[in-house]
Amino acid sequence: SGLVGILTPFPLTNRHKPGIIVDFISYDQRFSLSPVGYMDVYVKGGKVWNKAPYPLLFTPPTNLSYICGSEAFAMMSSMEFIYDQYAMIDIEHYMEGWILAKIPFVNKLKLREFWKFKIMASSLSDRNNPLRNSGDEMLFALPKNSHVMTEPYMEASFGVYNILKLLQVEFVRRINYLNHPYADKWGFRFGLRVGF
User: Which string of b and e fits 138-169 if b means at least 16 CB within 10 Å?
Assistant: First the structure.
């Protein structure tokens, strides 16, 4: 069934929903970029191998709250995209004050800067696309504001943490698919992140 049996250094998960075969692959790595901090990289992918209605397919990992989160898209709506195969990369670079520590007076606050970039490519095969199989009773019509990707979705963010050694502020920018209903170009997130 799919990728099972392939030798890989990455964790591979095979999940069976009733009658559905799904494979996932994920990889994460931290890179030291001294003296410019460190970078965390997350790579994920998945595929549904047979016919399934959209509730059994993939929807994007989204974070619709104002709290900072990793490995989720901050500016994407829930169920904005429906797909049966995808690949996603999440890059987070924590610069450990490499810029802010060089600015007079600001350096006394010991603030730390970071940036993030997330990209996801996905597709919906013809066998699972109700628009291509209008008479198939197994497939349900997609929800009103759901779409099929025509190009990779991207968002980027930058922010500051170690505010009072506790708080984090992040400004997020949605890069494309700005014509979708309820698509905001900019967002603001905050959270707790302890730094010393």
Answer: ebeebeeebbebeebbbbbbbbbbbbeeeebb
